[in-house]
């Protein structure tokens, strides 16, 4: 049973079926001048247009990339110039934004980090104090991959553009696209990043939306594909998978949202039931996901537990959840939760349970029961 859907998802069967046809009929290099190449190019351009529409844009550019990590790097490294005065990112960003910001700081740029509130969203007062007239670039994520907290991007963009109308505002929308409503023109963002494999597309494909007026420089050089912004032979199957997964997700956005909310709520009520049963009343947990968060991600900590051990115990039962207490898979601690003011005890015991439309109600009941059994066993052993 898979409950680490914020890390990746399984490719939709419909998409896999179509791969076979595309591989027969459109395996050509989209840069080739003969008929096959031109038809591949035509397909990619039509998907590019669909991608714009899926993001709520009537005009603008889409650059298909080799991952959302690459799209975030392109947005940041492709934008900054010698005369960029100040860069603002949040403490809650995914490493692909946060570490790029740190790299820019190391290269001598003036980079500042906006704090998070205890709810995992941007601390608006801190944002206001740091959002000075000399800020030229902002990158703030839409939905947190750690807690599911949703930032009000439209409000943040409005505020920033009031202070500096020329500011370029980038948003990492990887955990939002296909899960909650995204409308880049309504938000007023200049750039927006998405990833295919979080929404049942293929791994290794991302895209960056770029508003028409924004000029970027490439970070990968070569044959000049993707309007010179991302050289490398176009990944036709991958691009198809991103756009088709986006269409499927957006066509079913509300139904999936309601269903996943029910999964999450059932999981929590089954968890409470399991605690009440079998004398598990000594088990205490904390949630770091508030009511208006994305239901797809749940951050939960068990008191006086080492989450990694619980994760391994569940893994032995073929139940897979995410480990919230890791900055990366190797480094311990958690920058995001620490910044929210969460205690070391809770960080140590933190798990990330993330759902998708393919999970069943029966699965979440089993997860709740097995999770409480593991925590109970852990506490018994630790005594
Ligand atoms: N941004 C966020 C918020 C993410 O959750 C992830 C993946 O975990 C990424 C960026 C990176 O995506 P990709 O795996 O496509 O590089």
Nutshell version of this structure?
With 383 residues, the protein is α/β, with parallel strands linked by helices.
Poorly predicted segments = none
Largest sheet: 7 strands, mixed
Amount of helix: 40-55%
Nearest-angstrom radius of gyration? 22 Å
Mean pLDDT figure: 95
Q: Return the string of H and E elements.
A: EHHEHEHEHEHEHEEHHEEHEHHEH
Beta-strand segment tally:
12
How are the SSEs ordered, and which strands pair?
Elements: E1 2-3, H1 13-25, H2 35-54, E2 61-65, H3 68-77, E3 86-90, H4 95-106, E4 111-114, H5 124-130, E5 135-139, H6 153-163, E6 168-172, H7 184-187, E7 191-195, E8 206-210, H8 236-251, H9 253-276, E9 285-287, E10 297-302, H10 307-316, E11 320-323, H11 335-339, H12 344-348, E12 350-354, H13 361-382
Parallel strand pairs: 1-11, 3-4, 3-5, 5-6, 6-7
Antiparallel strand pairs: 2-8, 7-8, 9-10, 10-12, 11-12
Helix pairs in contact: 1-8, 2-8, 3-4, 9-13, 10-13
